[in-house]
Amino acid sequence: MKAILVINSGSSSIKYRFFQIDTYSVLASGFIDKIGESESRLRHAWQNEENKYEEIVETRHVPDHRNGFDWIVDVSTKTLPQGKKADLFAIGHRVVHGGEVFSEPTLIDDNVIAAIRQMIPLAPLHNPANLTGIEVARERRPDAPQVAVFDTAFHQTIPPAAFRYALPRNLYTGHHVRRYGFHGTSHHYVAKKAAEHLGRPLGTLNLITLHLGNGASATAIRDGKSIDTSMGMTPMEGLVMGTRCGDIDPAILFYLGRTTGRTFEELEMMLNHESGLKGICGVNDMREIIRRARSGDGNAQLAIEIYCYRVRKYVGAYFAVLGQVDALVFTGGIGENAALIRMLCCKALECLGIVIDSRKNEASSPGVSEIQGEKGAVRILVIPANEELEIARQTCDVILRGR
Ligand code: ADP
Known about the structure:
Blueprint: E1 2-9, E2 14-20, E3 26-33, E4 40-47, E5 53-60, H1 65-79, E6 87-95, E7 106-107, H2 110-118, H3 126-140, E8 146-150, H4 160-163, H5 169-173, H6 184-198, E9 207-212, E10 216-222, E11 225-229, H7 251-260, H8 264-273, H9 276-281, H10 286-294, H11 298-322, E12 327-331, H12 332-337, H13 339-345, H14 358-362, E13 369-370, E14 379-382, H15 387-401
Parallel strand pairs: 1-6, 6-8, 9-12, 12-14
Antiparallel strand pairs: 1-2, 2-3, 3-4, 4-5, 7-8, 9-10, 10-11, 13-14
Helix pairs in contact: 1-3, 10-11, 11-13
């Protein structure tokens, strides 16, 4: 059975999913994390003969990504029943930073690898890990064409007025300092799903999409194209996130450097890992924060208020930018599952035609759901994120287009 393997390679993890090529049903999926540590965790699920999923979980040492990749191919070959053996058609890789070079998914060759490597200074944590995944997959499966799908690509349509910072010009021309935006594959995927659901071509739609997961970002989409997004040069800007601060006054850093003597590395660590929801109330898991807020924890209540206030500010700003909005889309772990957060993100936005129906908002349903009230001019959609599926589709499109 022809399959596409989607790989998301992190510094010490590999997440993967095998899709059957024509139906895009998931043949197998799983992850390995803590690669290089003494006890790596491996989880693999696969579709058996009755189309039900079975799962194995293992703990053992996986020394490196090469070893991890071999395990993935091996365990998939062993577990998938005869009629569903994955004959690799192509491999799609998530790549975080494509800079200004890549505005589309791209067939990987040596030049593409060199370009991704050049972008390492822009994404020092992510691009090297993504490259490791690509190199191992190419080495182990040289027969399978490989495609890079970039997190930044969808946002390459953002105009200069929105992507340039008010900084000395040579920081852009000489140092690539600009807004790139991230989560592009997810924003693009839910935008297409919204178009499908509304029965209109994506190119005729204005949308505000909110990806609210551990990381969080908002995107303004005009006529199907991203024209602004809340993450910036790095994923730190914009909305409040699990452990990232989002927008802050940059002068706070100079103040802290002067008064506490903290180094750049310490400050970066704090803004990335000790801030956001966790910084305000001590935890970053929204389920736990809601539970604490409901039992009277003032810090958890404030964390939710700050989080939703920031989302509302962005929705208001993007409304002003777009002029007219067909739909507001919620996705990501929080956007899909936290009715309370959706409700607070829409609070007092009736003036913009954004009115949530609390009963529809509370009713959880699989797939796309609509939760606006009767008086709302803007459709409010909840759409499950599926970046892996989008990567698989884009990978397939690139290969078929090239033939
Ligand atoms: P990632 O960005 O790592 O892919 P997810 O999109 O899975 O993250 O989102 C993780 C966030 O979603 C966590 O803060 C988690 O608490 C939150 N979340 C998941 N389910 C729920 C739920 N039922 N209610 C509230 N928050 C939830």
